[in-house]
Design a protein that fits this description.
Distance between the termini: 13 Å
Oligomer: single chain
Strand order of the largest sheet: 7-6-1-10-11-12-13-14-15
Strand content: 25-35%
Number of domains: 1
CATH class: Alpha Beta
CATH topology: UDP-N-acetylmuramoyl-L-alanine:D-glutamate ligase
Structural class: alpha/beta
Radius of gyration: 19 Å
Length: about 280
């Protein structure tokens, strides 16, 4: 039976403007193009898991078919508006179970305003959480059935809710993959027993109490990763953009820097979420 991956996190609509350069303070500029698309770190990671979990058999001896290697379920909240409907419809179209996504007529769906610098593909994001912040710790004092084989979370929902779900997962022996983005300090006990911690350089610096400059060397990456391992994390992954990925497992037995393949960057939006999705499928 295929494993169940549950994603507890944000659902946002992305309002994306593509520009020739990021606007300067006080500058008004015209975008080259504009797009409205489903987003939110939680929803992005759920879709990534769902899409990447489907392998197609194209061998000559078999008729073309799709094999699902994992079931994906989304837990979150949207407003009872057109954006909320767009988000749940998009998740469903990719095979994600949305029965755990609540919809409230008194709330608005979360919005992310994204400006993409086309020459570099780099983005800047302003987030309005809205319905995402309606998720309460009491909602996840016990994780909803069925029991997941892996729980994925981020920090675009209230931190107390994330911490409550961490405790519930620990009590139920459910492994957790935490992607603490946007970065904010966490209490030490949040790391205890955490199966997988995936951070980028900014998040590693904020949570590890170091500067990003400290992470330019492999020894610096190893040092900050060891801090997380000492707090109880089993596997630490630091994504480094064009530099690749640094990883370190408990006791430091397995560690190393995996360089990234050279590629032309078009848009970095949701790149980290896609990485989380593939990593989750590899470890579940």
């Amino acid at each position: 039976m295929a494993p169940l991956i549950t994603v507890l996190g944000s659902l946002n609509i992305d309002l994306v403007s593509y520009v020739s350069h990021h606007p300067l303070p006080g500058e008004t500029m015209t975008s080259n193009s504009f797009a409205v698309s489903p987003g939110g770190k939680g929803a992005n990671q759920a879709v990534a898991c769902a899409k990447l979990s489907r392998s197609r058999d194209t061998s000559a001896s078999a008729s073309t078919s799709t094999h699902e290697t994992a079931h994906i379920r989304m837990l979150g909240a949207v407003g009872a508006d057109s954006y909320g409907s767009l988000l749940t419809s998009n998740l469903s179209s990719h095979g994600v179970d949305v029965s755990g996504v609540t919809s409230s007529p008194s709330l608005k769906t979360g919005i992310a305003i994204i400006v993409v610098d086309e020459p570099t593909g780099q983005n800047r994001i302003i987030l309005s959480p809205e319905a995402n912040h309606s998720l309460q710790p009491s909602d996840f004092a016990v994780l909803p059935a069925p029991k997941a084989d892996l729980l994925i979370m981020q920090l675009e929902i209230p931190l107390p809710t994330v911490l409550a779900a961490l405790r519930a997962a620990r009590d139920a022996s459910v492994p957790v993959l935490l992607n603490p983005a946007p970065a904010q300090p966490l209490p030490d006990d949040a790391y205890a027993g955490l199966a997988h911690l995936i951070v980028n350089e900014t998040e590693a610096a904020v949570l590890g109490g170091v500067s990003e400059a400290d992470l330019e060397s492999e020894s610096g990456l190893e040092s900050v990763s060891k801090k997380f391992l000492d707090l109880g994390v089993q596997n630490v992954i630091v994504t480094l953009g064009g530099r690749g990925v640094f990883y370190m497992a408990a006791a430091g037995v397995k560690k190393g820097l995996v360089p990234a393949e050279k590629a032309k960057v078009v848009d970095t939006t949701a790149a980290g979420d896609t990485f989380v999705g593939q990593y989750a499928l590899d470890v579940v």
